[in-house]
Amino acid sequence: MKRALLFLIVTVAAISVVGAAGRADQGSAEERGRRDVTLPLSSSQGWIFDVDKDIADMFAEESGITIDWQISPDDQYVDILRVKLNAKEAPDIFMLQSSTVNMATELDPVNNCVDLTNEEWVSRLDPGIREDSSLNGRVYGLRLWRISLGSAYTYNGQVFDRLGLEEPGSYDEFKALCEELKNAGIVPIYQCIPAGWHHVVPLFNTCQRIEQLRPGTYEALNNNEIKLAEIPEFVELLGQFKEFADRGYYGDEYLSNSYEGAAKAIVEERYAMVFNNSGWIREVATNYPEVDVEEWGMFQSPWIDNRLAGVSTGGPTKFIYKESDLIEEAKAYFDFITRLENLELYLEKANDGNFTQITFPEAGAKTADMLPGEKQFVDFTQEHGMGNIMQNGVKYINPQWFDVGKDLELLFLGEMTPLEVAQSIDRRRRDQALALKDPAWM
Amino acid sequence: MNKNRIYPAYFMSPALLLYLLLFVVPGIVGIYYSFTDWNAFSTDVNFIGLRNYVEIIRYDGRKSEFLKYITNTLHFTVGSTAAKILFGLGIALLLDRNLIHRNLYRSVVFSPAILSILITGLIFRSIMHPTTGLLNAVLRAIGLDFMAQKWLVDPDWAMRSIIMVDVWKGVGYVMTIFMAGLQTIPSMFYEAADIDGAGYFTKLWYITIPMLVPAIKVNALLSFVHGIRVFELVYVLTNGGPGRTTEVMNTAVYKEFSYGIYARASALSTIMFLFMAICGFFFLRMLDRREVEL
Fold this sequence. Notes:
- The complex is a heterodimer of chains A (442) and B (294).
- Chain A is α/β, with parallel strands linked by helices.
- Chain A has helices at 2-32, 50-63, 74-86, 100-107, 109-112, 127-132, 157-163, 171-183, 201-204, 208-213, 217-222, 232-246, 262-267, 280-287, 327-337, 340-353, 372-384, 390-393, 401-412, 418-435; strands at 38-44, 66-72, 93-97, 134-135, 138-139, 141-142, 151-155, 187-189, 271-277, 297-299, 309-311, 316-320, 386-388.
- In chain A, the strands form 4 sheets. Chain A has a 5-stranded mixed beta sheet. Chain A has a 4-stranded mixed beta sheet with strand order 8-9-7-10.
- In chain A, β4 and β5 (138-139) form a beta hairpin.
- In chain A, α2 runs antiparallel to α16 (340-353) and α12 (232-246) crosses α20.
- Chain B has 294 residues and is mostly helical.
- In chain B, strands 1-2 form a two-stranded antiparallel sheet.
- In chain B, a hairpin with a 2-residue loop joins β1 (58-59) and β2 (62-63).
- In chain B, α3 (65-95) runs antiparallel to α10, α4 packs across α7 and α10 runs antiparallel to α13.
- Chain A binds chain B through residues 3, 6-7, 10-11, 14-15, 18, 75-76, 78-80, 82-83, 85-86, 108, 193-194, 196, 253, 255-256, 399, 403, 406-407, 409-410, 413, 415-416, 423, 427, 431-432, 435-437, and chain B through 7-8, 10-11, 14-15, 18, 39-42, 59-60, 129-131, 150, 152-155, 235, 239-245, 254-255, 257-262.
């Protein structure tokens, strides 16, 4: 009798350990219905500014809903988010790069995101951005991130003037320019491999040149009619990246440089230039007021003799998780941050005030304050034209961004050839396409 | 023996049932899924045989990168296990003597074992930075510039650096187990050896190490399993870099899971499980021959 009683107690104790967790969940679920709730928002560290948190504090004061910021390092965030989405444990609000191609292949918004098409602010969003945040005519994301003029090599004008250098118009001129800088004891290009994403940007932000030389390439890639390894210009582009590494144009510290160190390194003339978004020059102006940034300039990526500006319509975008218990609260947050006064505050303060415009035209634009380098870049773009960058036009590129970064690192170290890098990218595209049962690959 | 005070075997059944449901059954189900095309984008799960395993070995007719991850994992496991046992035994032998503040030294050596792996990784990532890190700064300050390395960014040094950090963190735990083992060796063996004129290293080889085989077995097995399952330290220190030179099986599993290709992640996990089972079995058999029965 005693043994039977003891056995019963032990069994009940074992089961109650599991049951207690469920009871705790039920307790918390009852609290979420109230307004004094916490709303998790996950993001990569480079996508959130102080003004986002200031606006969130104002929202908390007004509504009682507190935003819980879950910020991850740039090189880890996408993996973490994808694991959470796949495990059906995504945060209530999360951020990801938008573009119709990426949303369809990387995010599966129909199953993972709340349809925001009927929200009031959608009609006020820039039409091009609205389309890029949509799939099959339904809007799924809210993007405030600036409309970009594109990325370019921003250079220290004082260094160029002192050495009598001019902006290159071709790959050979670019190589000659870098050789002169290296001979003068200045590392030509600032690379920061540990960031994981930065050194990949010039690769795919030059591919509009391939589309220019071979019209229809993007579509052929999406239809699996051609592979990247079969495009000579793409393999040549990778070869040029490798050549620069071999010639020492990235210096000795590129495997350990941080992204945040670029401005200081170029201001101090240890490095001459960095490939970055066109608004980066304003960050330098803000953080180093003693430097005459009026003399700084920027030029388009000259790899494979490219002259086209690479346009990116995608950008960091907020989505609401479809399985969230706080959908109405998240929508209330979106309503708040898209109020005109908050949009104007965001434009004024985001990225230390270095955005010239955001995705809501009513917030205005700061184009009148353009620096000479920016104006020059806009003029160049108008003269030579623009093209869509590869990650916004070709499927299964953006999801493997950081893996491409590792491939490039191995390319620079001599562990992979340009052809092997292209084949590696093709292999991952195939894996993703097969997982999605893409008809073009089946 | 009072039979009334011994609990019957069926008292284990609730805990055993929970263990089966939470550990064994998911493991078996995971092995089943490794033979399918299970992924995040489709609710259909189709049996595809050994295709996932074939792709882990060869992909598109070329050697797959997953083989490199397996060799990296083995490199880390063997390297860190050997180093931890060597240093752990050495420190245990040193601290087994009658020293002043012996307990303080033991505490200091053991303390890294209780730190979070994540925090340890973040701190060492800073310490081992090639230009601003404390390690290279100290080496240069004391005139040992030639020893300053690009610890976590040089392909030749990245895995060695991860092993060094793992050894620093785990040697205290290994030392503790060896110290417990040393306490069980009867002193009469050493007295007899002294009478026969045996030196220190003779006693070490013929008495101490054979008597410590159970402790060596425990340490080796725990280190081996830890090595095969390593993830956090690699992820925080190098994230598999530079390139993929320090990518291990668990970081590959994580990557496949983040891509939503669950079946291949399951296949990699199954391979890890088989490794642990087979290598662990042979390892223990090998050490059984050296064990001394009292």
